[in-house]
Design goal:
Radius of gyration: 20 Å
Largest sheet: 4 strands, mixed
CATH topology of the largest domain: Zincin-like
Strand order of the largest sheet: 3-4-6-5
CATH class of the largest domain: Alpha Beta
Distance between the termini: 30 Å
Number of strands: 9
CATH superfamily of the largest domain: Metalloproteases ("zincins"), catalytic domain
Structural class: alpha/beta
Shape: globular
CATH architecture of the largest domain: 2-Layer Sandwich
Order of helices and strands: EEHHEEEEHEEEHHH
Length: 202
Amino acid sequence: MRVTVDLARGVEVVLPRRAPEREAAAAIRELRPWIERRVAELEGARAALAARGDTVPYLGQTLALSTESGRSRVTRRGDVLLVPGGEAQTPALERWYRRAARSEIEGRLQRACALAGSSYSHLTIRGQRTRWASCSRSGAMSFNWRLLLAPEPVLDYVVWHEVCHLEVMDHSPRFWRLLASRNPGYREHQRWLRVNGTTLVL
């Protein structure tokens, strides 16, 4: 059974093929406190997005958006992003963030691996809906470009989290001890991501 909460679609319950429908109602009753918290979080995220106005976050900074007609590509000048207008704006902004993510994350990943005495095989930048990053057994790293919408220490925490997986693939006590030794404030950044992750959208 899977239960998701979305402000546009409401509460969605996906049941196994042969499960009776009454199980959906039972699940909603049982999960009501979680559902109510999730709705409140999403409404808070919507308010935070509305409060941005013509700005976007970038690793703890605030960048102003300046619309220019005829522009198809985003360019940064200081604390200003020159952006296309209309429907082209959001896709162009995402492409810009994806390019910036490769540069920002690759440098951090290389530094963390050098300090840890480990190495990764390759880096992919993605736009996953449910995952911030991953590390495969072959050392392939994948990071979500939306992490650039978070404060810089949060991105650094996620990088260290994945670098620690190069040594310990699971989330055992050994993994958390290793992460704490390399990123001592990780709990604060982990909590920030859990509370504010829904606001990391354009």
